[in-house]
Amino acid sequence: MAEVFSRLNMFRIGWRGVKLSRKVTNAAVSAQTQRRYGTDVCEQERSLFGLLFDIDGVLVRGRTPIPAAKQCFRNLVDGDGKYRVPVVFVTNAGNSLRETKAEQLSHLLEVEVSPDQVVLSHSPLRVFTQFHDLCVLVSGQGPVVEVAHNVGFKNVVTIDMLREAHPLLDVVDHNRRPKDPVPQSKELPPIDAVVLFGEPIRWETNLQLITDVLLTNGRPGTAVTSLHYPHIPVLACNMDLLWMAEAKNPRDNPMADIYGANLYNRYLKAMHRTRAQAQAQGGSSGQVPGDLPCEASDDAKGSGRVMVGGSFDHRLPEGCSSILVCTGVYNREQQDLPSDPEQTVTEQQIFHGHRDFRFDPSLTQPSFVVHDVRDGVELVFQLEGWSLQ
Fold first, then answer.
1. What percent of the chain has pLDDT over 90?
2. Residue 353: what pLDDT?
3. Which residues, in sequence order, are bridge partners of residue 138?
4. In the 8-state DSSP scheme, what is residue 226?
């Protein structure tokens, strides 16, 4: 999301969430953005807020559009089909290309969605440039090699390539066990990192081979002589295994979109405080606080792309608020969360958040709760002083 609209305040609608911004941070927009949204500079200055939509449970249920979403998007575009405000679609899905997801959304919502408007769970891997030249093992389903190359990885090994090179490692499925003498394993380069794009089709194969790679420090054909810790890096794009689709029963996980939106808002507030302090002291205003270093490379500053490592000086969104919609996983009667941050696991509630994030009950609370996405967007436009009609 930072790659496309980091210069704008943002609003996210998730199954449970909409991220909202309410004030102007930067009146400068590119000519490309002006053309895409059919706005001139004066109008764009009045519309420096944007919408981030989650997809499943908000806009669609599986492959079925939610009626309120189609009605909402009829009002979000003008007579020429151009968006009245910047819109981005964000999803935990990671088993497709942005072009494919954009085409699906265009068909389902009956509006034009470009690949630049789509952020998948693996999209942030574009900024992990320190891994792009390494040999990476990728796990998931769909066009994983194409996806890996698309986000910047140059040397890719798939699970199928690995099991073909080492057939004796994948023996859980008895029907796939080698029945004839196994020839010498094919040579593969040592694996430097593991990338998890999303849920695989054969969990047992993927888990076994990834475990072998980790235990052997990237050389699964060798014997384990000692445990290597820390092991080679594992980049997990989507650890949220709970979603709604067209199932009758919700799979409840309040620790994804709302938690992430609020966490991002906390980061933005910390960034702005740090910049203000640095400016007051006559220092650099671009240093990122704490353990979240970022910088914009020379070719990325114009687009606001966030790069890992160092500092940056482009405009950030002022804030990011969350709106919970009730058409997806969210269940009002089953969302009581422990108030004690240390009480992350109870008999009925489990903290599904990233292990690097300490559980914070305040981050689970949305800024607003609405019935559906149309109500959420109407609320945003009302807060911004805009008419949605």
1. 38
2. 63
3. 158, 195
4. S
Gyration radius (Cα) of the chain, Å: 23
- What pLDDT was estimated at residue 114? 95
pTM of the model: 0.75
Nearest 5°: the CA angle 213, 216, 218 is: 50
Helix (H, G, I), strand (E, B) or coil at 362: helix
CA distance 319 to 70: 27
Strands (E), 32-110: 51-53, 60-61, 64-65, 87-90
Whether pLDDT at 352 is above 50 = yes
Percent above pLDDT 70 for the chain: 67
- Residue 190 in contact with residue 135, Cβ under 8 Å? yes
Strand intervals (E) in the chain: 10-13, 18-20, 51-53, 60-61, 64-65, 87-90, 118-119, 135-139, 155-158, 193-196, 234-236, 294-295, 307-308, 320-325, 368-370
What's the per-residue H, E or C state across 324-340? EECCCCCCHHHCCCCCC
In the structure encoding, which two tokens stand for residue 278, read together? 């640095």
Distance CA 185, CA 271 (A): 51
Please tell me the predicted confidence (pLDDT) of residue 105: 94
Q: For the purposes of burial, counting CB atoms within 10 Å of the CB of 142, is it exposed (0-12), middle (13-18) or buried (19 or more)? A: middle
Tally Cβ neighbours within 10 Å of residue 383: 15
Which pLDDT band holds residue 381 (cuts at 50, 70, 90)? very high
